[in-house]
TrEMBL record:
PANTHER family named in the record: DIPHOSPHOINOSITOL POLYPHOSPHATE PHOSPHOHYDROLASE, DIPHOSPHOINOSITOL-POLYPHOSPHATE DIPHOSPHATASE
Record carries keyword Hydrolase: yes
Entry annotated with the keyword Nucleotide-binding: no
Gene Ontology molecular-function annotations: metal ion binding; pyrophosphatase activity
GO cellular component, one term: cytoplasm
Keywords associated with the record: Hydrolase, Magnesium, Metal-binding
Reported cofactor(s): Mg(2+)
Location of the Nudix hydrolase domain: 19-151
Protein name per UniProt: NUDIX domain protein
Listed SUPFAM superfamilies: Nudix
Pfam families, alphabetized: NUDIX (PF00293)
Domain of life: Bacteria
Length: 151
């Protein structure tokens, strides 16, 4: 076995074959038709604009986990949660070690009817209602951009 083959088998191949991590996200909206707006929040570490998302939560299905993240990260107190996902997107999650983990995020739509003035991550994030077009321009993930333009 050559050194290149050993390197492929021992280092590179496992990186490409490792399972993707899973997250659930909340596409929080209000209004209808041309008046539809999307709720974006900033990430805690980089300050980039994102939609609320997080890891699976024991005892909750994907839609319920997305609603929980919307509460913690954006203060969504009341919303009609679609039980079926509206789409998904994948991205590379950069860890503190510098490693990049592939993450696939399933997105659920929440039609928001009430936002709280106080919520768990209020001092760590900024939230803002914007048009789907503006939201697609602010987020970085190409698949999420496309999803935002479809609503």
């Amino acid at each position: 076995m050559t050194w290149l083959h050993k390197f492929w088998e021992g280092v590179l191949k496992p990186l490409f074959q490792r399972p993707r991590l899973v997250q659930f996200a909340a596409l929080c909206t209000r209004g209808d038709g041309p008046d539809t707006q999307v709720l974006l929040v900033t990430s805690r570490d980089t300050g980039r604009w994102i939609i609320p998302k997080g890891w699976p939560i024991d005892g909750l299905n994907g839609a319920e986990a997305a609603a929980q993240e919307a509460w913690e990260e954006a203060g969504v107190r009341k919303a009609e949660v679609d039980p079926e996902p509206v789409g998904s997107y994948c991205y590379g999650k950069v860890r503190k070690s510098g490693a990049i983990d592939p993450v696939c995020t399933t997105v659920y739509r929440l039609r928001v009817t009430d936002l709280a003035d106080e919520f768990p991550e209020i001092h760590e994030r900024t939230r803002e209602w914007v048009s789907p077009q503006e939201a697609s321009e602010r987020v970085h993930e190409p698949e999420l951009k496309k999803l935002l333009l479809r609503i």
